[in-house]
Design brief:
The chain is about 35% helix and about 25% strand. By secondary structure, it is of the alpha/beta class. Strand 15 and strand 16 form a beta hairpin. The longest helix is centred in the middle third of the chain and has 23 residues. The mean pLDDT is about 90. About 40% of the residues are buried. Helix 4 packs across helix 6, helix 13 packs across helix 14 and helix 15 packs antiparallel against helix 16. The strands form four sheets. It has a seven-stranded parallel sheet with strand order 6-5-4-7-8-9-10, sandwiched between helices.
Length: about 500
């Protein structure tokens, strides 16, 4: 069907189900003239659907994110078995008329340690199957639940522990700014010699050139790749595809008959639910909010997302389970917190996953991550919808120790002033930071010269300062300095700041 044919027929349709090849553009929604109620994407990715236009025209977009979980896990196990016994290489040798038994001696899986990097749905299914093969399974995921891991006999560890302990590595993390080229020269240098790595996640999490060097050095004995940074990849000159110790498949993780049927069923059920007026747990865009309510909540929505983002930015190399939210509002228990809660979850999860979080799916996504969210509303005086909002994460392991309050939680609090959201408390320190742009946080001793020397270090690095504020516990004691910066400092500039006498630690909040 051509785009023109789709435009002609869409105005007669209540629902549209597509795969990745069909582009559902703004023109499609305009041609629907309000008739189209739901678009179903038979698969996970929704890059081919204009989500902003869908929301603008009141059309729900749903996908099918779970039906291919087992298929992807099975493919990861298949690649691990192929690597351990040189299956692909031995097959190629036989087809070339050779009998090379001694050349393709493999290694056993039993009693080996499998490090699962990214302990989500697929990672959990891989763990279950690897345990059945007699493997010791550990997992690195700073946002995974200890309870979920224990339930399948998996031990959560730090990144360095995983790299040092793993015999096999199964990659299942999303591609985010924090995971892009996570497996680089520094990561490979921490691995045991002879490690094996399987990637059925996203191509961009591995630095291809670094993996090639690790293979040359024998640090990595073999690799299996189902995904590539560019798909299809450029075969000529690719640093990995032509290597004899690298097994490659063309993104087959979800390619089973059962998975394809499951995706079809899942998306069809989601579309039917939407047409019946039910809220779908697989919705990827938020339902329309009335203009009046949106106008009233707009600054508080921004505050909620910003606090969630700020809190999770401060989490160190360890997971958390509990999220405690406190709303101070003149409306007391009459305050509808669903949208605000969803935006807090959005701020947290969208820093660590590729999920599209909205009021429909926020609670489900949080539950799937093993997160427990508790909310308290305190009635206050005033006329605003919300006097203040706080978010506390149940962990004391922070990249910025001053963010941990007296109860051992990472704590942030904020409010809205004249329509602008402000961060007003970090841990036990009172601050006043407009939640716009990037902010450099500096924990320090309260002593002369620090402000000037830190400013000089930033100037040396050509970093412009938009504002600066200092909060201290008492004279000559601990203090926090918050500096608004127009650009993110490079590693050299941050090292210069750390060398300033009295500076104890740094953290950066990004808009």
């Amino acid at each position: 069907m051509t785009p023109e044919e789709l435009y002609a027929k869409i105005a007669q349709s209540d629902a549209l189900i597509v795969r990745s090849a069909t582009k559902v553009t703004r023109q499609v929604f305009e041609a629907a003239k309000g008739k189209l109620k739901v678009v179903g994407r038979a698969g996970v990715g929704v890059d081919n659907v204009d989500l902003a236009a869908a929301t603008e025209y009141g059309c729900l977009v749903v996908n099918a994110p779970t039906a291919n979980t087992v298929a992807a896990a099975e493919h990861g196990i298949a690649l691990m078995c192929a690597l351990s016994r040189n299956v692909a290489q031995a097959d190629a040798s036989m087809k070339a008329g050779k009998w090379e038994r001694n050349k393709y001696v493999g290694v056993s899986l039993v009693d080996k340690t499998l490090a699962i990097m990214g302990f989500g749905k697929v990672g959990g299914e891989v763990a279950r199957r690897a345990r059945g093969l007699g493997m010791t399974v550990i997992a690195y995921d700073p946002y995974a639940s200890e309870e979920k891991a224990r339930a399948v006999g998996v031990k959560l560890v730090t990144l360095d522990e995983a790299l040092a302990s793993g015999d096999f590595f199964s990659l299942h993390m999303p591609l985010t700014p924090g995971t892009k080229k996570m497996f680089n020269d520094a990561a490979f240098a921490k691995m045991k010699k002879g490690a094996r790595i399987m990637n059925v996640a996203r191509g961009g999490v591995i630095d291809d050139e670094a993996l090639a060097r690790a293979l040359d050095a024998g640090i990595v004995a073999a690799a299996a790749l189902d995904v590539f940074e560019e798909e299809p990849p450029k075969f000529e000159g690719h640093p990995l595809i032509g290597r004899p110790n690298v097994v490659c498949t063309p993104h087959l993780g979800a390619s089973t008959t059962e998975a394809q049927e499951g995706v079809s069923t899942e998306v069809a059920e989601a579309v039917i639910d939407a047409l019946q007026g039910k809220l779908s747990s697989t919705a990827v865009n938020a339902p329309l909010v009335s203009a009046e309510v949106l106008k009233e909540l707009a600054p508080f929505v921004t505050l909620a997302e910003g606090l969630g983002k700020a809190a999770v930015t401060l989490v160190a190399d360890q997971g958390f389970t509990d999220i405690n939210v406190c709303y101070s509002s003149p409306r007391g228990d009459d305050l509808d917190t669903r949208l605000l809660r969803a935006m807090i979850i959005k701020g947290i999860l969208e820093q660590i996953t590729t999920a599209n979080v909205n009021i429909v799916n926020a609670d489900l996504l949080a539950k799937n991550r093993g997160l427990r969210i508790s909310e308290v509303t305190i009635r206050t005086e005033g006329s605003d919808v919300l006097s203040s909002l706080s978010v506390a994460l149940g962990t004391s392991k922070s990249t910025f120790s001053a963010a941990v309050d007296k109860t051992g939680r990472i704590y942030v609090e904020g409010s809205v002033k004249n329509g602008t959201p402000y961060l007003e408390k970090i841990g036990g320190f009172d601050v006043e930071l407009a939640m716009q742009g990037s902010v450099l946080l500096c924990r320090q001793r309260d002593q002369p010269g620090i402000v000037g020397n830190v400013g000089m270090a930033l100037a040396k690095g050509s970093i412009n300062i938009s504002f600066m504020t200092v909060c201290r516990t008492s004279r000559n004691e601990e203090a926090i300095m918050a500096i608004g910066i127009d650009d993110e400092p490079n590693a050299e500039t941050l090292d210069d700041i750390r060398k300033v006498k009295g500076v104890q630690e740094l953290a950066i909040f990004k808009d």
